[in-house]
Amino acid sequence: MSAADAENPLVKGLERLPVHPTVLVIFGATGDLAKRKLLPALYNLAHEGALPERFHLIGVSRRDKANEDFAGEADKAIRSFSRREPDDKVLSALLAEVKYVPGTFDDPAVYTALKTELDAFDAAAGQPLNRAFYLSTAPEFFPVIVEALGTAGLTESAGQSEVRVIIEKPFGTTLAEAQDLNARVLSVLDESQVFRIDHYLGKETVQNMLAFRFANSMFEPLFNRNYIDNVQITAAEDIGIGTRAGYYDHAGALRDLVQNHMLQLLTLLCMEPPVDFSADEVRSEKVKVLHSIRPPHRDEVFRAQYGPGTAAGEDVAGYLQEDGVPAGSHTETYAALRLHVENWRWAGVPFYLRTGKRLARKVTEIAVTFKPVPHLAFGEEGSVGVRPNQLILTMQPNEGVSLSLGAKIPGNRMRIRPVNMEFLYGTAFMSQSPEAYERLIMDAMRGDATLFTRNDEVEAQWRICDPVVRRWEDEPEQLVQYPAGSQGPPEASELLLGDHVWRAI
Amino acid sequence: MEATASSRTTDGVWRERDTTPAAIEEAIRRLLNEAHAENASYVPARVMNLVCIVDKEWSGEIANRLRRVGRHHPSRTVVCAVEPRRTTLDAVATVAGPAETKPGDFAVLRETVLVTCGPQHLARLDTIVDPLVVTDLPTMVWSPHGHPEAVDALRGMSQIVLLDSVSEPDVGEALRRAADLAGELYVVDLAWLRSTPWRERIAATFDPATVREDLRLLSSVAIRHHPDSAAAALLLVGWLGSRLGWELSPLVSRGGAAGSRVGTAHARRQDVKLTLDADATMSVPGLAGVALESASGRALRFDRGEGGLRARYRHRQRGHEDVEREWTILGASRGEAGILGEGIRQALLRDPTYGPALEAALVLVR
Ligand SMILES: NC(=O)c1ccc[n+]([C@@H]2O[C@H](COP(=O)([O-])OP(=O)(O)OC[C@H]3O[C@@H](n4cnc5c(N)ncnc54)[C@H](OP(=O)(O)O)[C@@H]3O)[C@@H](O)[C@H]2O)c1
Questions:
Q1: Which residue among A103, A152, B43, B175 is buried most deeply as judged by most CB within 10 Å?
Q2: Do residues B207 and B348 both lie within one domain?
Q3: What is the 3-state secondary structure (H, E, C) of B161-206?
Q4: How far is the C-alpha of A445 from the C-alpha of A51, rounded, in Å?
Q5: How many domains, chain B?
Q6: Dmax over Cα atoms in chain A, in whole Å?
C-alpha cells in the first residue's frame, strides 16, 4: 500500500477535519439570504479557523458592481448579522480577494467570466481547487444555473478536486416540479455532487433527535406501536407573515413547513437505526419511513387562515388584511394532518402534524403519548388521576426533553397526579451553538451529505403532500378563520381519532 | 466592565466566618431554592464542577479570567483561596442569574463558592471540597498557582485536571507532572491547546493524497515559540513523532533558557532535524511559527500574521524552476480568555492523541 492510499495519520483526534481548498461561488450573493445568513456564516467559520486553508469567495448576481463594492457590501452585512463581533483583521483577510461577477443567470458570458476567475484561483494555488456553487436564488434559476454550469464545463472536476452544488429551498412546489428539477439537475450532475438544503437539519436540536433515539437504550424498546398511542408534531409561530406576502401567498403553510421540515422531524422520529451514520445509510432509512406513508385522505387534513385578533396585547390584522395579500386569497396559514406510518413498527399509531402562523406561542415540539397502564390498582377519586406518560421533545424555544410521570400527591390517600421530569440542553452545555448554515456550508464543502435531502427523499416528501396541495388548489373554498393569537381553529380537532386532543400550544 | 441591562444579574449571597463544609453546602442548596422560588425560570446549570485552588492575593485576577471565559462557563465553581497562616475556613457562596428573564424562557444560574483556607488544609482538601461539588457531574481541578499537594488530595474525587505547562518554570518538570497526573485523570493542558491550530494546519496541508507521501519524507521541523512556551513546541514535535512513528531522543539545549533546543528524530526513511527556537519578540504565550521541509524539496512554513496564519510554500526540484507561493489561512487569535474557555470546553471531550504526544515530548526533555 502506498502512503497515498493510507489514511492521513495526522487527523486522528482533531475536532476540525481538513477540508480540501475550496472556492465558494454564491449565486444571488447580494440577496437577502446571502446577507443575513451565508456571509455571516462564512465569517464565523473563518474566525474559528474552520474554513479550508485556501478559501476564496466569488459572488454572482445581476447588478453591475466592482469587486471592492461587493466586498464593502459583504463587510456591512457581516457586521450587521454575525453572531459574534467580527475581528477586523480576519474580516478584511476574508474579503481581501473576493471577486464579483455581474450578469443575468441565463447569460453564457457570466459563466465565461466565472471560469476565468476560477481558473485564476487554481493557477495561483498551483492546484485545482474544489468548487462549491451555492444557489441562493429564486427557485426558477436553479435549473438554469446548473445547466449553464454544465454547458460551460464548470461541473467537471479536475484531478483530485471536486465540484459540488448546494441548492436552496424550495425544491419544487409540486411533485412534478420536484421531479423535473431533479431530472434537469441530475442530467448535469451526479447525485453525490448535489446538496439540497433543509436548514432544519443543520440545527443542533434536530441532530439531537438522533442522539436521543440511538444513544440511549431506555427509550428505543418503547418506541413502537405496542407502547405508543399517538404522536403530535407542532410547529407553531406567534408571528404573522410580515413583509413576505409575495412568497407566502404562493406557498402556504403546507409547502412552507410541512412538506420539508415537519416531515424531516417525523422521519427522524420514526426511522430504524441506521447501520452507520454515513449519508446514504441515514437517508435510506429516512426514505423508507416516507415510503410507508400514504397521502392523507380528505378527512385527514385541515386548513385555515388567521383572522384579525390579538397578539401580545395588541390588535393585529388578519391574513387577508396583511399588506400584499391578494383579496380573497385561499392560501392556508394553518395546516393540520393525520398521517399513518404503515410499517411493522408504527402501524396503527396516528401521527398528528400541525403548523400555523399567528398562534398563541412560538413552539416546535414532538409529543409522544404512551398507552395507558393496563390496569389501575387505585381509585382516582379526588384527584386528576393517572394520565398516560408523555415524552416531549422540544426544539424551540427551550430545547429539551421532558417526561410526564404519575406521582402520589402527599397525604394519607393514594391520589395521583402527573408531574414532569425535565431536562434542558442549555443547562448541560453552555457553549453557543453554531448557526445551522455554518454547519451546512462546512458539510457541503467537505462532501458530507447526511444533513441534506436526497433526490428520492424530496420526491417521497412531495408524494405525500402533492395530492393535498392539488386538492386544495382545485377546490378553493372559503377557509375557516381562527383569531390571531389563538390556539388555532377548533375544527382541527375533527381529524383526531378517539379521545385524542391537541396539546395546548 | 460596565453592567448593561442584559448583563445585570441578581445575586443571592451567603457568607460566614469560621464555617464548615456542611454549612456551606446547606447554604448553596438554600440559595438555589430561594432563587427558584423567586422566579421559576431559574434553573441550575449542570455542566460540571470546576475546583480552583489559588493564592488569596491573586484570587481576584483568577475570578476575572473566569468571568471573561463567558460562554464556556462550568456550572459550579468552587474557589479555594489559600491564605498564609490561616487555620479556619471562611466562605462566600453566590448564586447569580440574569436580573431579567423572558416569560416562558429559562435562565441558567451560576453557583460560585469562595472558600478561604490555610496551607495546612491543602493536604486534605478533598474533605472540604467533596461536599461542595454537585454529585454525578464531572469535576475539573485547576491550580494555577502551584499547590500540587492540593491537586493530589483531589485526585480521587475528580476526573479532569486543567494545567498550563507553559506557565511552569521548568518545562521538563511540567511535562513529567502532566504525565504523572495523566495516569489517573484526563489532563487538559493549555499548552497542548495552544498547538491545536498548528496541528490542524499541518494535518490539512498533508491531507491531499498527492502530498501525503511527503509526511514520510519530512527532513526538518523548526518551531519558534514564546520564550516561556517551550512546552507547546515540545508537544507539537511529540505529536508529529507519535503520529508518524519517529524514534525520538533528548534534544540538546543551546543558549540557556531563552535559547534553542536541537536534535534529530529517526524516521523510517531518513533523519528529521528538530529545532525549537525561543522568539523573544513574541508578546503572547504560544507558538510563533512552524517550518517543515521534506527530502522531496518542498518547504512549508506557517507564521502568525494578520487575520490568521501566513503560509509560505516553496518547491525546489532539480531541472525545474522553483515554485513559491504565499497565502493567508484565516483564523482569529483566541486570546488568553479564549484558550482558558477552550480548556474548560475540552473537559467534556477526550483527545486520544494527547497522551502519546506527551509521552514522546517527555523523551525530548529526558
Ligand atoms: N431570505 C430568506 O430568509 C430565505 C430563507 C430560506 C430560504 N431562502 C431561499 O434562498 C433563495 C434566495 O432567497 P433571497 O431571499 O436571498 O432572495 P433575494 O433577496 O430576492 O435575492 C435574489 C438574488 O438573486 C439575484 N438575481 C435575481 N434575479 C437574477 C437574475 N435574473 N440574474 C442574476 N441574478 C439575479 C439578485 O441580484 P441583484 O441584487 O443584483 O438583483 C440577488 O442577489 C431562495 O431560493 C429562497 O427560497 C431564503
A1: B175
A2: yes
A3: EEECHHHCCCHHHHHHHHHHHHCCCEEEEHHHHHCHHHHHHHHHHC
A4: 9
A5: 2
A6: 85
Give yes or no: residues B72 and B206 share one domain. Answer: no
Q: Look up residue A24 and give its three cell numbers.
A: 465558494
- Check CB contact under 8 Å for B200 and A49: yes
By residue count, chain B amounts to 366
Q: What's the gap in Å between A137 CA and the centre of ligand 1?
A: 4
Cell of A116: 476565468
Q: Is there a single domain that holds both residue B120 and residue B225?
A: no
Last residue of a domain, one of B112, B140, B158: B158
Are B136 and B11 contained in the same domain? yes
* Residue B12 counted as domain residue: yes
Q: Is residue A180 very low, low, confident or very high in pLDDT (cuts 50, 70, 90)?
A: very high
Backbone angles phi, psi at A118, to 5 degrees: -65, -45
pLDDT number for residue B2:
31
Count of CB atoms situated within 10 Å of the CB of A51: 28
Of B158, B186, B204, the residue that ends a domain is: B158
For A346, phi then psi, to 5°, come to -115, 0
Residue B337, domain member (yes or no):
yes
Q: How much is the pLDDT for A190? A: 97
User: What is the rounded CA–CA span in Å between residue A491 and residue A479?
Assistant: 11
Establish whether residue A137 lines the binding site of ligand 1, counting it when its CB lies within 6 angstroms of any ligand atom.
yes
- CA gap B43, A101 in Å, rounded: 51
Q: Which of A2-11, B133-142, B312-321 has the lowest mean pLDDT?
A: A2-11
- Cell match 438522533: residue? A210
Dihedral Cα A426, A428, A434, A436, nearest 10 deg: -70
B206 and B132 share one domain: no
Give A477 or B182, the one with higher predicted confidence. Answer: B182
The complex's ipTM? 0.90
Which residues contact residue A311 at a Cβ distance below 8 angstroms, ignoring those fewer than 6 apart? A238, A239, A240, A358, A484, A485
- The DSSP code for A332 is -
Residue B189 lies in a domain: no
- Closest Cα of chain A to B145: distance in Å? 26
| For helices A455-474 and A175-186, angle between their N-to-C axes, nearest 10 degrees | 150
| pTM for the whole structure | 0.93
Cis amide leading into A170 (omega within 30): yes
In one-letter notation, the amino acid at residue B37 is A
Residue with cell 383569531: A483
How far apart CA A205 and CA B343 sit, in angstroms, is 25
The percent of residues above 90 in pLDDT, for chain A, comes to 82
- Same structural domain, B241 and B151: no
Residues 181 through 210 of chain B touching chain A, CB cutoff 8 Å:
197, 199-210
Q: How far apart are CA A333 and CA A494, in angstroms?
A: 18
Residue type, B275: T
Residue nearest to atom 15 of ligand 1 (CA): A32
Distance A249 CA to ligand 1 centre (A): 17
Cβ-based neighbours of B327, under 8 Å, separated by 6 or more: A53, A54, A125, B310, B311
| B39 and B142 share one domain | yes
Longest Cα separation, chain B: 81
A365-379 tens-digit pLDDT: 999 999 998 887 777
Using CA atoms, how far apart are residues B228 and B143, in angstroms rounded to an integer? 18
Interfacial A residues in 4-23 facing B (CB < 8 Å): 4-6, 8-16, 18-20
Bin A232: left if φ > 0, else alpha if -120 < ψ < 50, else beta. Answer: beta
Q: CATH no. for residue B265?
A: 3.30.360
Three-state DSSP state, A284: helix
Q: Does residue B286 form part of some domain?
A: yes
Residues of A marked as catalytic? 261
Round to whole Å and give the CA distance between B281 and B293: 24
- Do B114 and B214 lie in one domain? The reply is no
Which range (A347-356, B117-126, B196-205, B310-319) has the least confidence? B310-319
